[in-house]
């Protein structure tokens, strides 16, 4: 079985697709379980990995630099891969972030393998001096977690000078996500495909950041995703798509947030068009030969906003050139 999401290039602060979750085949998703997972994950040894020297996608000296790279690792069993990667940013830059820009997972044994869960995530992003560092993780497993697998993730780093570009980034959710008592993060949610007629899921979420200017653009950036069945099955179809985002929150609508479904905390009892609120829909499919099975799904994102941020919708792919 070979599962891949071809990497897509994003030059400068544009919205794209996203997605994360920490997948555990053995337990349901509750706050306690997630905190236990975070503790376990932090105690995992780093997996030997290869990080490619990143290519430059765009640079305006003194203002911004965009770099694209990959990380690759393998395991001889179905546990979580955890790596720590870093990159030096230019001397002129004082802000930086990294987001997920593609992934590939494949079993290294016979092709006819079942799947119970899979995930890829970029998290714990931190800038220390002129070095941007982050953790990344991946998993591909069936019920017995005995099969070896290979994992590759593609990332994009954006570094900029905030005196030349009015850009703010929201990517500090992971510490809140893994610390009890700090409140729910805006940047992730867990959900389930239940009581539907097909394997297609649709979830709405929002992100709130009071530091973003009220008038402007917010771009949602992907940082990870995950799918999990209760038991393993052959994989027929897997899909993930984050639709375009809008600086809009609907009054009375409930959005997926952390482990709950909640209304956006709007300042007045009316829908709002305000860049401090950004919402989007996400679609996912996890399917075997049956019409549908319930599955768990998770997503994590970052956001960039400011007067110098813009977004553009990519043109449709040429169906003759797309991969099946």
The low-confidence parts are 1-31, 317-324
Q: Provide the number of structural domains.
A: 1
Helical fraction equals under 10%
Secondary-structure element pattern, one letter each: EHEEEEEEEEEHEEEEEEEEEE
Structural class: mainly beta
Gyration radius (Cα, Å) is: 19 Å
Shape: globular
Taking all residues together, what is the mean pLDDT? 81
Distance between the termini: 14 Å
Tell me the fraction of residues in β-strands, as a range.
over 45%
Q: Could you tell me the number of beta strands?
A: 20
> Count of helical segments?
2
Main beta sheet, described? 7 strands, antiparallel
How would you describe the overall organization of this protein?
The chain has 324 residues and is mainly beta. The protein contains two helices and 20 strands. The strands form five sheets. Strands 5, 7, 8, 10, 11, 13 and 20 form a seven-stranded antiparallel beta sheet that branches. Strands 1, 2, 3, 4, 6 and 9 form a six-stranded antiparallel beta sheet that branches. Strands 12-19-14 form a three-stranded antiparallel beta sheet, with no helix packed on it. Strand 3 and strand 4 form a beta hairpin. The chain is globular and about 55 Å long. The two termini are 14 Å apart. The N terminus and C terminus are likely disordered.
Features:
7-stranded antiparallel beta sheet, 6% helix, disordered N terminus, 324 residues, globular, disordered C terminus, mainly beta
